[in-house]
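Homework help board

Subject: predicted structure for assignment chain

Our instructor gave us this sequence and asked us to write out the predicted structure in token form, then describe one feature. I got the tokens but I'm not sure how to describe them. Can anyone check?
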Amino acid sequence: MNKSLWILPAHYQKTNARNANKKRAQPERSLQVRVATMLAWMLPPEVPWTAISPGVVNPSDRAKAARMGARLKAQGLHAGWPDLALIFHGRFVGIELKAGSSLSPVQRAVHQQITIAGGVVRTCRSEEEVVEFLDVLGVPRRNVRLSPAERASAVTQL
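My token output:
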């Protein structure tokens, strides 16, 4: 019986068969979806807000991420801006969402520039921290109470 031994190149990455088809967890994206859903229901129309999305659909696909990054850069997207932006009493309010990681040097620099210009930026790690931050600023809320089932269906509608 002739057994062949296959030796893989050093740069070849082995994949775990059980995890090969499993999607990579994206806790920050999940947090942003939850906060965006909450803000859509919580903030009244007189408080305009938006998400500033980096738009990278699949960071594990480096070529696709590079193309998307180049396209967004050409359209004027700059690094370091907060994930969520709203205007309250003529003032820029930025919310940076983080799920365990820390701010990059570029984010720190942009947040400092926003603060110097009279805006406010805060890093939040949960929906509760976002609500506390907006309450401190006095941002008005709608009187909307959502059940967990209503919140889950709101996520699918966004």
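Reply (TA_rk): Your tokens look well-formed. For the description, you could write something like this. The radius of gyration is 21 Å. That's the kind of observation they're looking for.
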